[in-house]
Amino acid sequence: MLKIAVCLKRVPEMELRFSIAADRKSLDQGGLKYEISDFDGYALEVGLRLVEKEGAGEVVVLCVGPDGVQETIRKALAIGAARAVHLKADEVPFDGLAIAKALAAELKDGGYDLILFGRMATDTASGTVGPMTAELLDLPCVTALSHLEIANGRGTARRDLEGATETVEFPLPAVLTIDEGIARPRLASLKGIMAAKKKPLEVKPAQLGQVSLTVEAMAMPPERAGGRIIGEGSDAVPELVRLLRTEAKVL
Amino acid sequence: MGATFAFAESRDGNLRKVAFEAVTAARQAADASGGGEVHALIVGAPGIAARAAELGKYGADAVAVAEDAGLERYSPEVFAATSAERLRTGAYRAGFFAASAQGRDLAPRVAARLGVSLASDVTDFEIQGDAVLARHPAYTGKVIVTLRLVGAPALLSLRPGAVAAVEQPRVARVEAVAPAIAPGAARVVVTEVSQRSAAKLDLGEASVIVSGGRGLRAPENFKLVEDLAAAFGNAAVGATRAVTDDGWRPATDQIGQTGRVVSPNLYVALGISGAVQHLAGMRTAKTIVAINRDKDAPIFKVADYGIVGDLFEILPRLTEEIKKARASQ
């Protein structure tokens, strides 16, 4: 019997064109569409596969955010999670520690064997909530893992470093953050989508606590002074080398 | 006056470039808060203390070294507990880590232990009164977020290469400290580190990156990319996701949203169209060169210098000209 929590984040679809709202510190919400953060999708798949292999247990999905995240939660239930907890907050802070506190408060007495996260959310791109949650719960934690085996209450994982790979061993219960590519996420079936409507979804207030990391400003990246095509074919090479030496000063 | 802290990352008995970057940033932050001391921490196997003086070169006033035979490899729990303990010993204004594979694992743990927030993968920062402002590319690099960190210590992890290591030599006091927990008591244990290519320059440490995409047409044509990298002398070879997915290059060479995020001085994109996921991994490079046969390829929009044309004609000549230019210096 494996009891697994998967913590999901709802993020805007990254393919869309973003613009900054009038307050200069948030995204213009107009036209945004949402999805499960990429890496969290892999975490969900890992959780489902582990429970299937074990033959007994359940995957519980947790998600912090406004009412709109229930759509994301239903997607995860349609894909195969058994039930869900929505930790309700008007907005999700940028502060990973605040989110970790809300999740840890809910996970503390949940009796989970594994708590899974994506390596990072694609919106904030910070990757802090998983390991912070582990520390708050005083659980063993392995981050950004690209391979995982669980047997007899212990796990073996691999994680990529710059130019090397680490093999890591740890006891359960544990917190893991999942890199992409570990297992191809399944799609929701029609049957799954129908079943998801009846699966339990509990709503509780998120205990975020004090936020000490806030967004001061958002801006589009400075336009690179790019778009300068200096020529065609190999005849342009001497000019490129001259510019690299005299203008960019990188030679 | 505000003292600052830097975690100095090491591997195989040597300090990594990101260690000097973290110390440089800590020096800048200390100077900006009235000129306090910079205290660095090295954790590693016996012998690593011999490297401590190198941190003085980049502005560290004191280096604490935690050596233990059980710390030849990274131990998340020991490193986090020891870092947190050092940060508790002084009234630190700020603490700096690398946003490297190790630092991304370590820094959030330390922050949670101290009950403070962390700004991750920071490209630039400034001290502003009681707050630290930190810039961080988010939303696959499409939005630059300025974060305000209040409270002390403000913890930041720095994108490798974003803060250039600057020499500001002084003689650092070196102090041996005990690991905050015994390595044998750690629950999470790294049992093996397999080096894929010990001789190869890492993407995060290279000042020049030459990268290839599907425009190379076949894996064996990466020889041309490697030749150009060799001509630069200190270049690493990267690749797009399309190329690593097809197994032309190892997955760890992938640059982009889901791979490595790099900020070299020079990024040369060869046969790369410039999909948004790839741009997320390299758009903070200081200078970008693109060579592509399609003049409408999005990569030209971010490139400082572009050449339109056939890679197989242009590359050998570029390699020769770079060799000549470097030889004449």
CATH topology of chain A: Rossmann fold
Give the beta-strand count of chain A. 13
> Unreliable segments of chain A (pLDDT under 50, ≥5 consecutive)?
none
Number of H- or I-type helical stretches of chain B: 9
**CATH superfamily (homologous) name of chain A:** HUPs
Q: At CATH's second level, what is the architecture of the largest domain in chain B?
A: 3-Layer(aba) Sandwich
Order of helices and strands of chain B: EEEHEHEHEHEEEEEEEEHEHEHEHEH
The CATH class of chain A: Alpha Beta
Specify which chain pair forms the largest interface. Answer: A-B, 81 and 92 residues
Assembly form of the protein: heterodimer
Proportion in helices of chain B: 25-40%
Estimated structural class of chain A: alpha/beta
Give the CATH topology of the largest domain in chain B.
Rossmann fold
Structure explained in plain terms:
The complex is a heterodimer of chains A (251) and B (329). Chain A has 251 residues and is of the alpha/beta class. Chain A contains six helices and 13 strands. In chain A, the strands form two sheets. Chain A has a nine-stranded mixed β-sheet, sandwiched between helices. In chain A, strands 2-3 form a two-stranded antiparallel ribbon. In chain A, helix 2 (69-79) crosses helix 5 and helix 3 packs across helix 4 (129-137). Chain A is globular and about 65 Å long. Chain B has 329 residues and is an alpha/beta fold. Chain B folds into two domains: 3-185, Rossmann fold, CATH 3.40.50; 208-327, Rossmann fold, CATH 3.40.50. In chain B, strands 7-11-6-1-4-5-12 form a seven-stranded parallel β-sheet, sandwiched between helices. Chain B has a five-stranded parallel β-sheet with strand order 15-14-16-17-18. In chain B, strands 8-9-10 form a three-stranded antiparallel β-sheet, with no helix packed on it. In chain B, a hairpin with a 4-residue loop joins strand 9 and strand 10 (143-149). In chain B, helix 3 crosses helix 4 (101-114) and helix 5 (222-232) runs parallel beside helix 9 (311-327). The longest helix of chain B has 17 residues, at 311-327. Chain B starts with a strand and ends with a helix. The model of chain B has no long low-confidence stretch (mean pLDDT 93). Chains A and B meet through helix 3, helix 4, strand 7, strand 8 and strand 9 of A and helix 3, helix 4, strand 7, strand 9 and strand 10 of B.
